[in-house]
Amino acid sequence: MPGTPAERQRAVSLAPTRVDVRLPDGGYEIVIGEGLLGGAARFLAERLPRRRAIVVSDETVARLHAPTLSRGLQAAGIATTLLTVPPGEGSKSFAEVERLVDALEALRVERSEPVLALGGGVVGDLAGFVAAVRRRGSPFVQLPTTLLAQVDSAVGGKTAINTRHGKNLVGAFHQPALVLSDVGTLASLPRREKLAGYAEMVKYGLLGNPAFFAWLERNGRAVLAGDSAALVHAVAQCCRDKAAIVARDEREMGERALLNLGHTFAHALEAEAGFGARLLHGEAVALGCVMAFELSARLGHCPTADVARVLGHFAAVGLPSRPAELGLPDFPPERLLQHMAQDKKVRDGRLTFILVRGIGQAFISRAVEAAEVAALLRSAAAA
Ligand code: NAD
Ligand code: GLY
């Protein structure tokens, strides 16, 4: 087994967990474990007949984790070529797509050769989109290194870049050929990023898995502290839940929208905050989930005791419930409503909200009046 002694020790300490994503055209496997990156050749070698790995990463992740990956591949006789982009949302751009496509052509990467996306949701969305459009569709492998990417963005085949008009406005459904989630890579993730990913993790409990929410109430701190067994269990559970929904509704014609719990609010908050480090996507999802629960309670769908339980868990693990906890102002309700009106999910002028009947009981509603949302936003701002 390749890698340093410490890497080898980590690799053998935990057997990987496998989750299948079953789709009409065959699907793929998600492998979750600790130390997978150093031993990735075991999963990748047969997919790389030219004995070379083309890795797309951001500069931060490349510095921290590409050496482990390439050392392991090297030991298996596979050379690595690393293509990096600057870290951050700005890299999900037409300019980076063009740069990567040109680099792949210069390397004469064949249509059947997979590109490996090593990084968070930015790298996964960007490299996935490049794979979707280059040579009319080519394979890619997700090697997610953020908690958010391991539980959400690396799974399910949504790929996208941003335009000057907004986030994720250009994209494609393009499923990865394989997802390898090494929870060991999360050790270097800043706590704020870990918490942001944890918000997406809690989302699975809140939308459809009350037993998992209860598990997180007991074990969330261990997950956030980096306990490997807790992380593997939790990441795998989220992947199972997402895989089941994606298998039933790959193109988001219905049920997949449940994965957007909190997101109508979140996208408006992110748009107002300017999409960047001021408010991370996962932080916005945390705030948005609270708003979705509060709106559901206001409309009489959800017991207030469940709202209190959500707030209690967020406080216990350090997830924000209000913008002020992140040092942000309360955004003007009218501005948030304006952003919501431009949401991708607006159809015939009506917004789609994911509401809840309680923890683990989300449903899709297109019957929420703008006045109700405005009232909720005003009362949240006054809270
Ligand atoms: P990200 O990719 O920007 O990563 C966050 C930061 O952490 C970056 O600065 C990165 O360099 C750094 N980083 C990544 N891994 C690290 C590690 N192991 N150690 C230290 N630093 C590390 O952000 P993200 O939160 O992973 O993803 C957000 C993106 O995902 C957004 O663009 C969002 O639109 C997208 N997204 C997509 C989907 C989907 O289904 N495709 C779902 C949710 C979110
Ligand atoms: N992140 C929502 C989805 O994949 O559908």
Could you explain how this protein is built, in words?
With 383 residues, the protein is of the alpha/beta class. It has two domains: 5-189, Rossmann fold (3-Layer(aba) Sandwich); 200-382, Up-down Bundle (Dehydroquinate synthase-like, alpha domain). Helix content is 48%, strand content 16%. It is built from 14 helices and eleven strands. Strands 1-2-9-6-5-3-4 form a seven-stranded mixed β-sheet. Strands 7-8 form a two-stranded antiparallel ribbon. The longest helix has 21 residues, at 228-248. The mean pLDDT is 93. Bound molecules: nicotinamide-adenine-dinucleotide (NAD) and glycine (GLY). Residues 152, 156, 158, 256, 259 line the site of glycine (GLY).
What is the topology?
Layout lengths: L4 H9 L3 E5 L6 E6 L7 H4 L7 E7 H17 L3 E7 L8 H13 L8 E5 L1 H13 L6 E5 L2 H7 L4 E6 L2 E8 L4 E5 L8 H18 L1 H16 L2 H21 L14 H11 L7 H18 L5 H14 L15 H9 L11 E4 L5 E4 L4 H13 L1
Parallel strand pairs: 2-9, 3-4, 3-5, 5-6, 6-9
Antiparallel strand pairs: 1-2, 7-8, 10-11
Helix pairs in contact: 4-5, 6-7, 6-9, 7-8, 7-11, 8-9, 10-11, 10-13, 11-12, 11-14, 13-14
The structure holds nicotinamide-adenine-dinucleotide and glycine.
Strand order of the largest sheet: 1-2-9-6-5-3-4
Q: Report the top-level CATH class of the largest domain.
A: Alpha Beta
Give the SSE order as H and E letters.
HEEHEHEHEHEHEEEHHHHHHHEEH
Distance between the termini: 56 Å
Which architecture name of the largest domain does CATH use?
Answer: 3-Layer(aba) Sandwich
Structural class: alpha/beta
- Shape descriptor: globular
Number of helices: 14
* Helicity range: 40-55%
Number of domains: 2
